[in-house]
Amino acid sequence: MCGIVGYLGNANRNGVDVILEGLTRLEYRGYDSAGICFRNEKSELLTIKSVGKVQNLKSLLELNKNRPISNMAIGHTRWATHGEVAEKNAHPHVNGKLAIVHNGIIENLYELKSYLQAEGVQFSSDTDSEVFLHLTYKFFNSGASLKDAVIEAFKLIKGNSAFLVIAHDLQEMIAIKRVAPLVIGRNSYQSEVFVSSDPFALIGYADQLLFPEDEVVAVLTLEEEPQFFELNGAASKRFSTQNQQMHYSDLGKGSYEHFMQKEIFEQPLLIKNWIHHYLEGQGKKSVEELTKLLSIRPEKIGRIHLVACGTAWHAALLIGDMIERTSRIPTNVQLASEFRYKNPILHANDIAIFISQSGETADTLAAQELCKRADLFTLAIVNVANSTLYRNSHFNLLTHAGIEVGVASTKAFTLQVLTGYLFSKILKEREGFDRNQFKHNVYELLQNMERGLDRAGEIAAIASELYSKKGFIFTGRGPYFPIALEGALKIKEIAYVHAEGYAAGELKHGPIALIDEEMVNIAILGSELFEKTLSNMEEVRARKGIIFAIAPKEFSEVRPRLGNHDFYFPLEYGKEVDLNPLYVSTLMQLFSYYVAKMRGTDIDKPRNLAKSVTVE
Ligand code: M6R
Predict the structure, then answer these.
(1) Co-location of 465 and 440 in the same domain
(2) Residue 572 pLDDT more than 70?
(3) Ligand 1 binding pocket includes 383 (Cβ within 6 Å)
(4) Would you say 197 and 29 are in contact if contact means Cβ atoms under 8 Å apart?
(5) Which of 421, 453, 485 is the last residue before a domain boundary?
(6) What letters, b where the CB count within 10 A reaches 16 and e where it falls short, cover 343-374?
(7) Mean pLDDT, range 397-426, rounded to an integer
(8) Is the predicted pLDDT of residue 574 greater than 60, yes or no?
(9) What average pLDDT score do residues 493-499 get?
(10) Does residue 524 form part of some domain?
(11) Is 611 a catalytic residue?
């Protein structure tokens, strides 16, 4: 949550523009407020903040007749934790001499705040972040260098955070982090240095990226290469370097109205690239290495823990099911926020798999840490290469979903499940991994998905009949249960309408009380247990609920009309296909997209949310 960005450069580029562009790209991390602080030619720190999206900040700056120009600036886009959404709580926090931006949470806020207040410090916001400003200033004002002041302040705070600090009379930026993401950018053609919460903000600016490890302070000036120090002041080598791998083409939404729409429709192409990567491209090496690693006898593996949050947890449920069905190895699928505090039973012969789009989700990272301490082999199914989860894993399978800008996860989910499917097949078949069969299965999904997306108009038409209804209950059995959960999450988060995902057989254990003429049951009928799910649907019909049935095409011959609205898909009745749930999930993504569009919500940036959840 929250995005931070910083720029220090020469006169060829206006730092204010770099910050505004960076904030626009980081807006997925939070959009409660945005702000910028820049140093002018008189060495004054000037700050402009506004509530709401980055566009509001841009408009404010455009109103300013003298468009600010600066070679040193920091900016922030906020997802509120401490303090309401208000201008006074927007970052940067500034006291005239220093300015800071912060991503994360200071857990010992109250203790530190009381201490500072007892010393006469006045607070002008309700944020935890302001504590860091005053602590740093206290040391800086007593003669410490900016670097040492930041170190001393950082030593006092608890919790996971990234900070970026500037002073009015220095040409330098100081950055430090614990767990929260932070990247430093350089380019080969100009003397400039950038800081960001995500390399995405640095596309087109920086070609070399440096990732400091936790509790390493970075001192950034124009005179020298970035310098890194440990908290004891010693020079540090704890940082990694990488070339920028993202491109301009990753930035836009093309001819689509929303990023979410683009991301839904690009899934077949991504799947095609994904299969090429793992079977014929550079990913072949990962497949070979994983095969070697898993070439132990199944009885040697204890349990496989699958840990994740939100949509990624739904992917984990599906992957867990795939592993159990094929290898009969017990799995333990857990929400990271629960797993980390429940003192889980872990054995050294267990495997722990963490699934995440961003690779920065605080709870998932903490769960990973726990498993590493218990000596488990950890594997990440992750989209962002070089994210914290990626760097801390023993082994990674990248999902190659590309940049997902829409806050609601769509393509990332599909590729997480596919990547888990790859894992489950290698685990089962090991040296005998049948690449041709695997490719065939994935291509079958790909083709079905393309045909499903061609029928988006049918889904839109159904959405137009249902979008104003009171609520939605998604039901499914087996692998369609996680799809029901995911369908409900999607519609909740982007259409702001109440929705629940239920195992179809559970309906009568409580939620059926919600059924009336205004409640929609989206009944997903797979080919397994079809009749049983059908009976559950009938129970809804008997109570006058509205039914949107999604079912295998073959069944339409037996029973031409299932619900008030039917969508038949090309699956042979009685023949379940491993990846068909992903096809149905694409239909659910389309449905929630159209419902949200008809309800007029902010689809790509739904209220109260942020794409990367870096607080617990
Ligand atoms: O980056 P992660 O995959 O770890 O994020 C986990 C969840 O926050 C995420 O899946 C969230 O539930 C989705 N944005 C919902 O669409």
Answers:
(1) no
(2) no
(3) no
(4) yes
(5) 453
(6) ebebeeebbbbbbbbbbbbbbbbbbbebbeee
(7) 96
(8) no
(9) 97
(10) yes
(11) yes
Closest by CA position to 131, among listed 168, 105, 170:
105
- Tell me the backbone φ, ψ of residue 302, rounded to 5 degrees: -75, -95
407 lines ligand 1 (CB under 6 A): yes
* 71 close to ligand 1 (CB < 6 Angstrom): no
pLDDT of residue 586: 97
Is the CB–ligand 1 distance for residue 357 below 6 Å?
yes
Question: Would you say residue 246 has pLDDT above 80?
Answer: no
Q: How far is residue 492's CA from residue 468's CA, in Å, rounded to a whole number?
A: 13
In terms of DSSP bridges, do strands 546-552 and 519-524 run parallel, antiparallel, or are they unpaired? parallel
pLDDT reported for residue 249: 66
Give residue for tokens 């124009």: 222
pLDDT at site 63? 76
Query: Ligand 1 centre and the CA of 412: distance in Å?
Result: 9
Domain boundary, last residue among 453, 480, 498: 453
Active site residue 37: no
Number of domains in the chain: 3
411 and 461 part of one domain: no
| pLDDT band, residue 573 (cuts 50/70/90) | low
Return d(Cα 586, Cα 188) in angstroms, integer: 42
The mean per-residue pLDDT over the stretch 541-566 comes to 85
First to last CA, the chain: 10
Residues of the domain holding 185: 3-251
- Closest alpha carbon to 408 in 602, 600, 256, 250: 602
